[in-house]
Specification:
The protein has 4 domains: 2-56; 62-168, Immunoglobulins (Immunoglobulin-like, Sandwich); 200-233, no CATH class; 239-438, Rossmann fold, CATH 3.40.50. 28% of the residues lie in helices and 22% in strands. The protein is built from 11 helices and 18 strands. The chain has helices at 2-9, 13-32, 35-56, 218-224, 259-275, 301-314, 327-332, 348-357, 390-402, 416-419, 434-438; strands spanning 62-69, 72-74, 78-87, 95-100, 111-114, 122-130, 135-139, 142-147, 154-158, 163-168, 204-206, 228-230, 239-244, 280-285, 290-292, 338-343, 363-368, 406-408. The strands form 5 sheets. It has a 6-stranded mixed β-sheet with strand order 15-14-13-16-17-18, with helices on both faces. The chain has a 4-stranded antiparallel β-sheet with strand order 5-4-8-9. A 3-stranded antiparallel β-sheet has the order 1-3-6, with no helix packed on it. α8 (348-357) links the parallel β16 (338-343) and β17 (363-368). It is elongated, with a radius of gyration of 33 Å.
C-alpha cells in the first residue's frame, strides 16, 4: 500500500491532469445524468491509477558503473564520463530516463532515454565534461527514472556510486634549459644532493637509538667525544623546492583571470617540468604546508607529481600577511638544491627574508609576478595593502638579482613558457629588462 501511495506521488503533470479531468467528468455526469460521460470519467481516472500501480510493482534490477577518462585534466581540457548500465534481472526493462548529477561548473546535467534493455543486456552511454575552473569535483550519483509508456507516472531510483574528478591548474610545457648549480655526473639536470637521507653530515652522524652498533665510527667518536655512526651511502638525485605565495594581500583580480591563478599555474608548470627532468620536487606554500619531497621518497615520481597537482587543484588564497611561516619548511629542505619561488607583491621585510632563504650553493629562481599589471583588467580589485608603485616593483626585482636570484618578471599578458629560457642567464643583473633599466629610482 505504501508503494502505491509513493507511486501516486510520482504522477506526472499529464497523469495529474487526467485525474483532474476524470473527477470533473464524473461530477458533470452525475449532475447532468449522462451515463456515457461517466464511462469517460472512469477511463480518465483509471489510466493514471493503473499506470501508478504498474510502475510501483516494477522490479527491475539494474547495475551501474561509471568511469572518468582521464581522472585528472588541466583546466580547460575535456574529459569523458562513461556509464555502463546492465539489466541483471530476468525481465526486460521498460522505458528508462537517466540523469547524472554533475556540478554546474562541469556543464549541464546530462539526460538520456533508454527504451528497453533485454535480460542481461548492457547499454553504454558517454558524455563530455569540461571546466575552466580548477578543483576536485564529485560526479554522481546516477538517477534512473521509471515511467509507463504513456508518461503518466514517473518514479526515481538513485545509485550510490560517485566518481572523483580533478581539474588541475593549466600546465605549460617549459623548454629544457640549463639551470646551473647542478651535478653534471648523471644527465643534464642533476643537482648534487642526497635523495632520502636527511641533512646529516656527509661521512658520519650522531648515534640514534636503534642504530646498528657495527656502524659505529670509533675514530670520529674519539675525536668528538660522542658516539658517531657511519652514514649509509645514498644515491645522488636532484632536489627542487617550489615555493608558492598564496597570500591574499599579494595578488589582484578575481576568478581564472586573477594574478593568483596565474601564479598557481606557474607553480604547477615549474613542478611538472622539474619532475620530468628527474628532480625530487616538493611544494611549499606561504602557510608552511609541504607536499611531496623527501618525506614521500617511497612513492613513485608519478605519485608525487599527482599529489602536488591535486594540492594545487584546491589551493586557495591564504590570510597570511608574510612569508615567515614558510621559512622553517624551506630550511628543512637543505640548501644545495634548486629553489623556484612564485611570488606576488613583496615589501621590504619579505625581500629581506627571501635573501636569507637562499644559501651560497642554492640556485634560486624567482618568478616575481607583476601584480600591478592586473589592475587594469576588468574585475580586478585592489588588495588590502594596495598596489606597490612601479618603482618599488622594479627595485624589488633588482634587489633579488643582486642577492643572487635569477628573476623573471611576468605581466598579465606573459606566458611562463616564453620567459623560462631566461632563467639560464648568468650574471648579477643580466636579466634586467629595458623597462627596469629605465625605471626611476633604480641605482646601477
Amino acid at each position: 500500500m505504501n508503494r502505491v501511495r509513493g507511486a501516486l506521488g510520482g504522477l506526472t503533470l499529464r497523469g495529474r491532469g487526467l485525474l483532474a479531468a476524470g473527477v470533473a467528468a464524473a461530477v458533470c455526469a452525475v449532475v447532468l445524468g449522462q451515463r456515457d460521460l461517466m464511462r469517460v470519467a472512469v477511463l480518465l481516472l483509471a489510466l493514471p491509477l493503473v499506470a501508478a500501480v504498474v510502475v510501483s510493482r516494477t522490479r527491475y534490477r539494474v547495475a551501474s558503473e561509471r568511469r572518468v577518462e582521464p581522472l585528472r585534466v588541466s583546466a580547460g581540457q575535456p574529459a569523458r564520463v562513461k556509464l555502463r548500465l546492465e539489466n541483471v534481472s530476468r525481465l526486460p526493462t521498460g522505458l528508462l530516463l537517466l540523469e547524472d548529477d554533475v556540478p554546474y561548473v562541469l556543464g549541464s546535467r546530462p539526460r538520456f532515454v533508454v527504451d528497453r534493455v533485454e535480460p542481461r543486456g548492457v547499454r553504454e552511454i558517454s558524455y563530455a565534461v569540461r571546466s575552466d575552473v580548477r578543483g576536485v569535483f564529485t560526479i554522481g550519483p546516477l538517477t534512473v527514472r521509471l515511467t509507463d509508456p504513456f508518461g503518466l507516472c514517473e518514479l526515481s531510483r538513485a545509485f550510490t556510486s560517485r566518481a572523483r574528478f580533478v581539474v588541475t591548474p593549466h600546465v605549460s610545457q617549459l623548454p629544457a634549459v640549463p639551470l646551473g648549480g647542478e651535478w653534471s655526473g648523471s644527465g643534464d639536470s642533476r643537482s648534487k644532493s642526497i635523495a632520502a637521507a636527511g641533512d646529516d653530515d656527509i661521512a658520519t652522524r650522531e648515534y640514534r637509538h636503534g642504530d646498528d652498533l657495527r656502524r659505529v665510527h670509533w675514530r670520529s667518536t674519539a675525536r668528538l667525544g660522542e658516539l658517531m655512526v657511519r652514514r649509509e651511502e645514498q644515491p645522488w638525485q636532484s632536489r627542487a623546492t617550489v615555493l608558492l605565495d598564496t597570500r591574499k594581500v599579494a595578488h589582484l583580480g578575481d576568478g581564472p583571470a586573477s594574478s593568483f591563478e596565474w601564479a598557481v599555474s606557474a607553480a604547477a608548470s615549474a613542478a611538472v617540468h622539474l619532475f620530468r627532468r628527474g628532480y625530487a620536487v616538493r611544494l611549499v606554500t606561504d602557510t608552511g604546508a609541504v607536499v611531496g619531497g623527501g618525506a614521500e621518497g617511497h612513492l613513485t615520481v608519478g605519485d608525487v607529481e599527482g599529489m602536488i597537482l591535486d594540492a594545487l587543484a584546491v589551493v586557495g588564497p591564504s590570510d597570511e600577511q608574510t612569508l615567515r611561516p614558510a621559512a622553517p619548511a624551506l630550511r628543512r629542505g637543505g640548501g644545495d638544491g634548486l629553489l623556484v619561488a612564485v611570488l606576488g607583491s613583496l615589501d621590504a621585510q619579505e625581500l629581506t627574508a627571501l635573501t636569507r632563504v637562499r644559501r651560497g650553493t642554492t640556485t634560486a629562481i624567482g618568478i616575481l609576478v607583476d601584480v600591478a599589471s592586473w589592475a587594469a583588467r576588468p574585475g580586478a580589485t585592489r588588495s588590502a595593502t594596495g598596489i606597490s608603485p612601479r618603482v618599488a616593483y622594479d627595485n624589488s626585482a633588482l634587489l633579488m638579482r643582486r642577492s643572487g636570484w635569477r628573476v623573471l618578471t611576468p605581466g598579465v599578458t606573459d606566458s611562463l613558457a616564453a620567459l623560462w629560457p631566461r632563467v639560464s642567464y648568468v650574471g648579477l643583473d643580466g636579466d634586467v629588462t629595458l623597462r627596469e633599466r629605465a625605471g626611476a629610482g633604480i641605482r646601477r
